[in-house]
Structure formats: structure tokens, C-alpha cells
Amino acid sequence: MRSTAVVAVLSAREAVPGPGAQHTRSPRRRRTFPHHQTGPGDGRGTGDLHDEEQRMPEHAHPGRARVSMDIGGTFTDVVHYDETTGAVTATKASTTPADLSDGVLAGLGAVVASPAEISFLVHGTTQGLNAFLERRGVPVLLLASAGVEDSYHIARGTRRRLYDLHYRKPAPLVPRRDVVGVGGRIAADGSELAPLDEDAVRAAAKRVRDEGHGAVAVALLFSYANPAHELRAREVLREELGPDVSVSLSHEAAKEWREYERTSSAVVEAYTGPVVRRYLQRLERRLDDDGLEVPLHVMQSSGGIVTAASAQDRPLQTLLSGPVGGAIACAELSARSGRPDLIGVDMGGTSFDVSLVVDGEPDVTAEAELEGLPMLMSIVNIHTVGAGGGSVAWSEAGGLRVGPRSAGARPGPVCYGRGGTEPTVTDANLVLGRIDPEGFAGGQMTLDTAAAESAVGALGERFGLSAQAMAEGICDVANATMAQAIRTITVARGIDPRASSLVAFGGAGPMHAVFLADELGIPEVLVPRLPGAFSAWGMLHTKIRRDYTEPHYRLDADVDGEQVRAALARLELQGLDDLAAEGVPEAERSVAHAVDVRYEAQEFTLTVPITGADEPLEAGFTTRIAERFTAAHQARYGHANPGAPIELVTLRTTATGDLGAPPRRPHPRAESDGFASGTRRVVFAGAEHDALVVHRDELLAGHAFSGPAVVLEGTATTVVPPAHTVTVDDDGTLVIRQQEASA
Question: Out of 434, 548, 573, 626, which residue is the most buried by the measure of CB atoms under 10 Å away?
Fold first, then answer.
């Protein structure tokens, strides 16, 4: 029999009409949605269904559904919004690394009887990111301008760690032997100095055939100013290799200045693109076969979404599509709670991600760097470290280490009983009594406490510590790693974390958040509803987003408002046309403009807003841009030089389309102070305490209690140490503060 899937119900009040489906496909026959088997012992209810009457999952909701999914290293989170009843539910399925679509379909099978019920579907995928991090991408042949073909390997001379004697430059994704110099030259102003050597391109195509390269990256000088040579190179490659060859052009991956960074962007896209495309194509086929009648949407690294078809054209944009959902969710929480500045911490089974909301908006940057390799694209600024519930604790040189190596989903922590032998952070929390062994993941799994104590105790013997003391040591080391990650994205950038609230989510985030806040002096911790699926919940509140750039080098004294306005108008028109192609209704389309600015002769830029495409025509345009740049420079670096000459570098346009989102619903309010609870022994600071144990479903708006306490729910566990208070606000968010700060 299929085990019962855990579903945490956010609210199910009076029926209201939800935002209808904005996209439609041709009608197709309604099909039964099979529950795909993901293997024995995975803790999920995905077994075969033998009885026709059991096709409807126990917790599925009939009617139209908006569904979002976040694929993590250990679990795939699913959030379901029923447009008929207004109910929002969440569940988890084990991530299936061998074929991620198995976990996706298993998660969907827990909340809908058939994909035909779905009116909107979005998911964040780690497929490209995993291929990059694990070096599982395809072999790439790089075509570069002859005479400067070594620029990708020369890279930048910046040395980030001056006193690290073991520092090595990041290993490029393309070995030098696979870089081909191609004749022809475009000048900086876009004029052609020498025609493209098409024979060299055809010779490169022969190498692709003979040597089995999986993709080609083309990065020619000044292609951002004139892409003609890159476009012709792709035509020649497809003439020789056929239309299915994967070709990434640098001006399409990143239409910006800086040759090395643009080349790196094209190479990363070529390296990971075929992996992402195969995954999306396979998932779309399986969903179509099961009856899905609307497009599959994919989160982008920018925090917006696109259809899977568009994502296959620009797979680089999906590289960090999983983690950014949490930043979008934090922005929604910021609007609802009236807290403009938030620090979001997402702790899952494998990693710990930190993001910021500043003045109510996610912190988005125009450049990212992954393992030392740069990429030019709009991306939510997320700092990730290898610290999660599955992080392995081990001994090295007489010291305790925790992570970055993870036990992952298979075999997982020792307490999972799947063959794991090394103690993890989850095992340590179980030993300390902070996890309910009978109700883990909403009762889907029963944890082996004795096995965890044995594994943690064995490691403790090396340090002369008891199992409990060793477990606290494991948690302390993990907390120190995570606290440093928060400092990196805040203090290191001149941001005082004490001026923000900490938002804890992910399956393990609420378990560690209060300890992190105490160490950093952060005054309060917010634990939203459905914290274990918060990133997936955020995906239901995002919008279609397309980003466009246009290099525009001008000193402030040389800026021509007509030229700027014309360039912005072109970008705006392109953005609106692309939104129409994505199926966004005309009334729901919008654009925003900005420009990258720097002081004359500087290297780096800051992005400042332009209020509209017509603002460049207004008197005093450059003066206002200079004032905005001065304010941004002061906020970012702590100093500015008002009146100094500035330079415009790159024009930016962002087109967004609103597809609707679940409406805000107040949490039911308590009529009395009492609620059902129990107690159990939990270890804090080396001593056992009688901690309050309460289920999240019992807590209504207005309820309050003091730690020590453990709050249980289907998607996460919240741990509240002694000397802290908890209140439930009108949205059902747990607000945790130190007692002395609560008066």
C-alpha cells in the first residue's frame, strides 16, 4: 500500500476564485497520473497503485491547482494552491539523483490525481548547477578570435587570497587543446576589420564530429557590439553538424563588455546546457504523457520565471534556479510583515544558502562567480556553503570538521537506516532530542536514535567526549560555518546584520536559526508557515522575467539623451514582445530600466535606476544619474566623490509579466491563550531541559510561549533555546526573540 503523504495545511477557508490559467495548450485527453516508483526505503509513498478507485491521492484537491516544486539535494518540495478552496498545502518527496523527473512526478502524485488538474506549474532545478559542481557537463569546443584565443585561460590576475600559499587559479571548463582560434575581426565600434574565416569554423566542426564534443561555445572579440561573426559561425556549424548541435554564442549568453567574463558565461552555458535541455525535455514529455495541459515554467537565477521552452534556449539563466525561490519568498514576507530588511537562511540536507532582502526587494546583482568562474547575468545574490542536515562530521588533525561533504539522500544520515555510517548534523540533533524520531518529515520516516547515538558516540571517543557533548560540538561547528556565511554576505559588504530580521526556512533552517541569530546579535528570527517548502512557496509569487542589456559607453559630458532613449525603447519593445510570446496578457506586462555607472577610469560599476525610457530626454538627466550613483556608492562602499566625472557603461531593461499568485489569507486568531502541548527532554548548553513540544497546527495568531521549546510540523522542526520567547503573528509566522529584548 502507498504510505500516506504528509501535507501541511496552511489554510482552507471559504471558497474564492483564484487567478485562472494564463497559458493554454491544445486540449488533450485526461489521463491517470501514475505514482512513479523511486526505489525501496526512500520514505515516500510512491508505490504502485493496483486499485482503480485509489488513483486519487488521499490529500489531493479536486479542481484547478497552482503547483510549485523546489528540487533540493535530499528532498523535492511541493507546494499546492487550490484555486477553488483557497487551501495551500506542502509535501516532500525524496530527490532521485539518477533521474530527477522521478522525484518531481512522485511529488506531484502526492497532491494531484492528474497533471490535467494543474493550471500553473513552476519548478526550480539544480540540474545545471549539479552538472557544473560535479563536473558532469559535456565536453566543449571553444571558438575564439585568432590571436587572443588564450584569454580564457589567462583569465584575470586578481588574487583573492593574498596569503594563501596553496592558492590555485580555478580550473577552466575547457582545456587549452580544445580552444580553436578563428580568423576574422570586429572592431570595438562594431565595424568589420576582417571577414570571418569560415574554413576555420568548418575545420572546428570536423573536430566536433571526430572527437565527440557535446557542445560548442563561440566567443569572438567585440561580439556585443556586432554579433554578425558569431551568428554566421553558428550557421556554419549547423550546416556541418545539423540543427541539433548545441551552440552557445557569447553575445547571447552575456551581451556585455569584458571578454573573459563573456567567454566564461558562454562556456558555462555550453557545458551545462545539454544536460539542462535533456532534463527539461524528458520532464516535459513525461508530464505531457500524464496529461499536463499548461506550459511548464522554470525559475531563473534572476528570481523570475520563464517557460521551459525559453529556458532551453538560455539554460545559463537556470543555473541557480532552485535557491532563488527562497529570496522571492522572503520579499513576499517582507511586504506582508512590514520589515524592509531581511536575511534569509535556507538550510536543507546538503547546503546552507544565505540571501538578502534590502528595502523590500531581493538583492540582485549583474554578475556571479561560481568556483572562481565568472558569469554575466542577472542573479539573486546568494552565498552558499556546504552545511546542511546531511553534512558529515569527521576528525582531521585532531580537530572536528563538519561538511562540506554530505551524506546526501543516499545513504543519508545514519539515523535514516539507509546504510549511512558517518555521523551528520541531523544525527547530532536527534541525539540532543531536538528531532522527533517518530514524526520526522511529518511521519514519513522513523529515525533510528540508537544508531545515531552509536555513530556520534564513536566520533566522540576520539575527542574524549560523550555522545551528547559530541553532538553539541557538531552543531556548534556547523553553526559557526553558517554564521560566517551570513557575515560574508552582510558584514563583508558593509551591512550590519543586527538591523535585519533573520528568516529561517528549509528543512533544517528553523532548527539552527536562533543559535545563529544569538551569535550575530540579530534581534529576531522569523519562521514562516511551511518553512521546509518556503522556497517552493516563493515560486508561486514570482513573475515572468526577461533581462536585456545594451553596452553604451559615454562620459557624462558626452551623453546624448536621444541615443539613450532610443536604445531603451528598443530594449523595451523587445521585452514586451517576448512577454507576449510567453503568453502574458498585455495588461500584466511591465518594464523597468537601469544603467551601470562608474567613476571615470574605474573598473567596476554600480547599477542605478532610470525612471522610464523617456527620462533621458528630460533636463538634468545626467545630474540625476550622478546623484543616484553617489548615493549607491556611499551605501555600498562607505564613501563617494560627488562631482567627479562618471561614465555610463551598460543600459539594462527588465521586462516582467504577472501571472497571478495566491492571495494573502490571515491566519486564524486564537480565542484563548491555551493550546495543546507536551514536554520532552532536550539538551541545551550541556544540560537537559524539559522542553515544551507543540505541533505547529495548534498555534494560532496571538499565541505566545517561552523556550526551551520544540515546534513540530510536516516540513521542518523549530528549536527554541531557553531565554527566548515565541509569538505567532497574523500571518502565522513564528516570531522568536530573546526574552530581554521582548519587553
Answer: 434
443-455 pLDDT, tens digit per residue, is 667 899 999 999 9
Give residue 139's identity as a one-letter amino acid code: P
Question: Rounded to 5 degrees, what are φ and ψ at 245?
Answer: -65, 140
- Please give the Cα distance from 247 to 194 (Å, whole number): 23
Q: Phi and psi for 599 in degrees, rounded to 5?
A: -70, 150
Instruction: For residue 606, report the phi and psi dihedrals to the nearest 5 degrees.
Output: -125, 145
C-alpha cell read off for 152: 580564457
Distance CA 444, CA 298 (A): 28
Name the residue among 317, 437, 329, 391 with its Cα closest to residue 73.
Answer: 391
- Of the candidates 465, 384, 365, which has an alpha carbon nearest to the alpha carbon of residue 423? 465
CA gap 332, 136 in Å, rounded:
35
Q: How far apart (Å, rounded) are the C-alpha atoms in residues 236 and 218? A: 12
Residue type, 733: T
CB atoms within 10 A of CB 153: 14
| Residues 320 and 301: beta-carbon distance below 8 Å | yes
Q: Which of 508, 301, 309 is nearest to 402 (CA)?
A: 508
Cut 0.85: pTM above it: no
Element (H, E) at 189: none
Q: Distance between CA 75 and CA 93 in Å, rounded?
A: 6
d(CA 491, CA 143): 41
Measured CA to CA, the distance from residue 609 to residue 589 in angstroms comes to: 19
Share of the chain above pLDDT 70, in %: 90
Convert the pLDDT of each residue in 426-474 to its tens digit. Answer: 999 999 999 998 877 666 678 999 999 999 999 999 999 999 999 999 9
pLDDT computed for residue 448 by the predictor: 92
Tell me, rounded to whole angstroms, the distance of Cα 636 from its chain centroid.
Answer: 24
Q: In what order do the strands lie in the sheet with 305-307?
A: 8-11, 88-94, 75-82, 65-71, 118-124, 296-299, 305-307, 544-555, 646-657, 589-599, 606-610
Count Cβ neighbours within 10 Å for each residue of 340-371 and write b for 16 or more, e otherwise: ebbbbbbbbbbbbbbbbbbeeebbbebbbebe
- Neighbouring residues of 14: CB distance < 8 A, sequence distance ≥ 6: 86
* Spatial contact of 301 and 375, defined as CB atoms under 8 Å apart: no
Signed CA dihedral, 468, 470, 471, 477: sign only: positive
**C-alpha cell of residue 208:** 566536433
For 669, which DSSP code?
A: B
CA distance linking residue 89 with residue 61, whole number of Å: 10
What pLDDT shows up at residue 61?
Answer: 37
Amino acid at 262: R
Type and span of the H or E element at 393: strand 391-396
SS3 174: coil
Residue 580 grid cell: 507576449
3-state secondary structure of 315: helix
Checking if the pLDDT of 22 tops 50, the result is: no
Nearest to 302 by CA among 383, 385, 367: 367
Please state, in angstroms and rounded to a whole number, the distance separating the CA atoms of residues 527 and 733: 6
